[in-house]
Specification:
The chain is of the alpha/beta class and 437 residues long. It folds into two domains: 345 residues, Alpha-Beta Barrel (TIM Barrel), CATH 3.20.20.150; 50 residues, no CATH class. It is 46% helix and 11% strand. It has an eight-stranded parallel β-barrel, surrounded by four helices. A two-stranded antiparallel ribbon has the order 1-2. The radius of gyration is 24 Å and the shape is globular. Bound molecules: D-xylose and nickel (II) ion (2 copies). One nickel (II) ion binds next to helix 9.
Length: 437
């Protein structure tokens, strides 16, 4: 049985092909800066949007046509869906996938039943991983959809709910480990507040840290050596999410002694919601040694929420790849498509079009970024811009040889500082466009 009749394995046909079900740029074996595209990009498909997304929005019911899914919460349906997911990923040629616990198995009527259902589906995943060679990039837990988490999970005011969330993390870590997952993600679901008048901010943030320490301890006790990741997002669903952006997350991790265990999983649409560019987030995390993985998608300039569209903008993917090449390689992280097809794109084939386009956009961004780096004009400009720090006074300051008194003396003696030079922003923007053309 096939869920995608008529779709063969997607292959690279080169930039000139007009075939919509072929790669024009993603050629997994092609070397860029001495590494294959496959290893640079480590593409991953998400289970939630791609296999559980219904296309519903606040104004209407789901639209997705998924003939293999009977819409029921039965374990048979979950298993059938799992087989289809692997058929899809195999045909697409992605090496990785990612899931939340609740995406893959029915929750049933008790936590115990949920755990048993997870075990059943994990057995199927294991079989499919072995058959296809596709691996788990990361696992995570959904601590935000069920009404019990209405006040949050790790930051809830209800200690029993905290315990429920802890039990879910315990099991999610165990199945991630069982499946050889390379990372484990914490996205702060409803960890945040709607109103400060009813919120004990310090207690909530202390609890979040305690929760993450417990996760680290449990992971170590079961032998999980993968990378932990926190995924920043500034708001939605809460008015203020505690993990609001890269800088806030890094500060939180350091304040609670978690920085050795965690890196960041940066998502494009979360960066833009925070009022940053994705490149800003990548550069900020990268320069702190905290770049772990990315959730690749994009928002809509005209809409102020997490629209999770597939990334197709070459300017964006080029900027992402410039930072990733600078601070990478991404491994054990990857480029995870936390993106969903539009409500109007309801046929199964649209899942292929969406992923092929996004993979090609990243492959092209990778090639463009590598060309910019190979020419070196941009790097050279930045190097020269900071040349005053390479020798003389600048080098002395960097080496710690000065204090306020000595600097005051220096500049009083010199009188006028050296002249400033133009930042040449427009020239550099033109330079980037040269490579995009
Ligand atoms: C939601 C997040 C979520 C995480 C995984 O906005 O992007 O999907 O990636 O929990
Ligand atoms: Ni995400
Ligand atoms: Ni998101």
């Amino acid at each position: 049985m096939t869920a995608f009749p008529g779709v063969q394995k997607i292959v690279y046909e080169g930039p000139k092909t007009k075939h919509p079900l072929a790669f024009r740029h993603y050629n997994e074996k092609e070397l860029v800066e001495g590494r294959s595209m496959k290893d640079h990009l480590r593409f991953s498909v998400v289970y939630w949007h791609t296999f559980r997304g219904t296309g519903s929005d606040p104004f209407g019911a789901g639209t997705m046509l998924r003939p293999w899914d009977d819409g029921s919460d039965s374990i048979e349906n979950a298993v059938r869906r799992a087989r289809v997911a692997f058929e899809f990923m195999e045909k697409l040629g992605v090496p990785y996938y990612a899931f939340h616990d609740t995406d893959i198995a029915p929750e049933g009527s008790s936590l115990l039943q949920f755990q048993q259902n997870l075990d059943t589906v994990v057995r199927v995943f294991k079989e499919e991983q072995q058959r296809t060679g596709i691996r788990l990039l990361w696992g995570t837990q959904n601590l935000f959809s069920h009404p019990r988490f209405l006040h949050g999970a790790a930051t809830t005011c209800n200690a029993d709910v905290f315990a429920y969330a802890a039990a879910q993390v315990k099991k999610a870590l165990e199945i991630t480990h069982e499946l050889g997952g390379e990372n484990h993600v914490f996205w702060g679901g409803r960890e945040g507040y709607q109103n400060l008048h009813n919120t004990d901010l310090k207690r909530e943030i202390d609890h979040l840290a305690k929760f993450l320490h417990m996760a680290v301890d449990h992971a170590r006790s079961i032998g999980f050596t993968g990378q932990f990741l926190i995924e920043p997002k500034p708001h939605e669903p809460t008015k203020h999410q505690y993990d609001s952006d890269a800088a806030a997350c890094i500060n939180f991790l350091r304040a609670y002694g978690l920085e050795k265990h965690f890196k960041l999983n940066l998502e494009t649409n979360h960066a833009t919601l925070a009022g940053h560019t994705m490149m800003h987030e990548l550069e900020y995390a990268g320069m702190q040694g905290m770049l772990g993985s990315i959730d690749a998608n994009r928002g809509d300039l005209l809409l102020g929420w997490d629209t999770d569209q597939f990334p197709t903008d070459l300017y964006l993917t080029t900027e992402c790849m410039l930072s990733i090449l600078k601070y990478g390689p991404l491994a054990p992280g990857g480029v995870n498509f936390d993106a969903k097809v539009r409500r109007e794109s309801f046929e199964p084939i649209d899942l292929f079009h969406a992923h092929i386009g996004a993979m090609d956009a990243f492959a092209q961004g990778l090639k463009i970024a590598a060309a910019i780096r190979a020419d070196g004009d941009l790097t050279e400009f930045v190097r020269q811009r900071y040349a005053s720090w390479d020798h003389g006074l600048g080098a002395e300051i960097e080496a710690g040889k000065h204090d306020l008194a000595s600097l005051s003396q220096y500049i009083l003696r010199k009188g006028t500082p050296a002249e400033n030079f133009s930042g040449r922003q427009e020239m550099l923007e033109n330079l980037i466009n040269r490579y995009l053309g």
